[in-house]
Patatin (Olea europaea subsp. europaea), 427 residues
Amino acid sequence: MTAAVSTTSMLEFESNMDVDKLTLEIFSILENKFLFGYERDPKLVTPSPTVRNVPAGKIRILSIDAGGSTDGVLAAKSLVHLESALRRKTGNPNACITDFFDVVAGSGVGGILAGLLSTRGNDGEPKFSTEQALKFIVENGRKICQKPAGVFQRVFGSSKAEKVLKKVFGELTLKDTLKPVLIPCHDLSTGAPVLFSRADALEMDGYDFKMAGICGATIANKAVHLKSIDGRRKIVAVGGGVAMNNPTAAAITHVLNNKQEFPFCKGVEDLLVVSLGNGESDAGVRSTISSPAAFVRIAGDGAADMVDQAVSMAFGEARGNNYVRIQGNAIVGKKQITNNKENRNMLKIAEEMLAQKNVESVLFSGKKLVEKTNKEKLEVIGGELIKEEERRKKSTVPTVVLKVQGGSPSPRSSSATTLSTLSSVSA
């Protein structure tokens, strides 16, 4: 394929279908940067006159990977550190992590963290602080992560996990989240990934599910049957780590296509993304695949790295300030975490990972060591999050227009949040 052929095909596509020009721009940027390494051509698209003169703002996305080698502890510890930095820099001791993000996506244990931090409590605030979420992950590690079995590193979706999640979330549903939440799983009945979305739950019948069920589905390695609140739809789910180990790209796609809630977001330059990994598997297993479980771990790490590579390339020169990836190098080793004492030691391991200068994947070029430690990167991105918050206080134009219960039931014209058609329940 050549650049000329690519441009011609785009023009033919535009003439045959009424495609939004902003979508064409996004496609062009990703295609040219990923395949050819070209810089963005401003002649490809003329900005819509309705958004051309709107003051620039950034949509803030938090994305959390599935369990990794720390079973969610690294991501939880990263959030505690980031929230502490936000409180220190703003001088507000009550600053909450969700106040500084517009979208929260999480897969596997990351999905549980997303639910804990985003679901509304009795006082109207998030049910859990970052400290409480970290404590929950550490104390309940054995209930949501059991001994290895089959080709999986851990057995997820146990009855113990179900009881714990029901106790935490009760009857709360996707509609009870404070911010747009995205949590994936894999639907065995359709053979396709599903992304549970607050926007879809508010807009359409059959898309609202209980948070306990969603969180159980995203950590499950055996079939979990879920029905929507109204009973119209059902899925047969297995874990989000299988479907989408790193949900960053899905979260970006959701924002770029959701013009009702994010009307002025034109491209990746209008995004501020924090992507949290949970530690890569021991590098020692990479030289020799000794078991199916080792293969699955490597596959999961590779899938997360590929998402990181593609997103980094899409951001281009802006990735230094607009995109931050926190990941831990392989320092855990092959030893499995099987008891509470060892699970608590994950806190120490996570601290070591935060002090690392982690490795960054470069497409076709292997990996390189980055200049800043994970803690330093969180400090920098904390400053950027605060800048955007201060900008919004002075702006008369809303950057985000969140849907609320009782809003328009009409589906978005370009929704990309549900990646498979949920199976209808027979009457």
Notes: The first strand starts at residue 59 and ends at 64. The first helix runs from residue 3 to 16. The radius of gyration is 21 Å.
